[in-house]
Design a protein that fits this description.
Layout (H helix, E strand, L loop, with lengths): L2 E10 H10 L3 H5 L2 H4 L3 H17 L11 E5 L5 E5 L1 H10 L3 E9 L2 E9 L1
Antiparallel strand pairs: 1-5, 2-3, 4-5
Length: 117
Amino acid sequence: MAVIGVGIDVVDIERFMGSLARTPGLSDRLFTPAEASRPPASLAARFAAKEALAKALGAPVGMAWHDAEVTSEDSGRPRLVLRGSVLARADELGVRHHHLSLSHDAGIASAVVVLES
């Protein structure tokens, strides 16, 4: 396996939630219904994950936010579900494995994505 891409992103939770409150429909554009039901820190971390994934993929034009979903395994471990435009770009790059780490503390949410062949 070789590393194809790495992405990292950080989000100020309060600022992000303010953006969601000020912009009608933004939450619906960014998150699937399952993601949208999460608490603020978790939402911000999921947004950071999608941004980190976009960076790891080379910031492809036309990426649909719903085509990358952050779910949780029974253990609580975060997992990326790729579909549509995001899956097509990952396949184009030869991505066979991906890793995701999320964190939030002191008002900041962060995510790291590693893509491997």
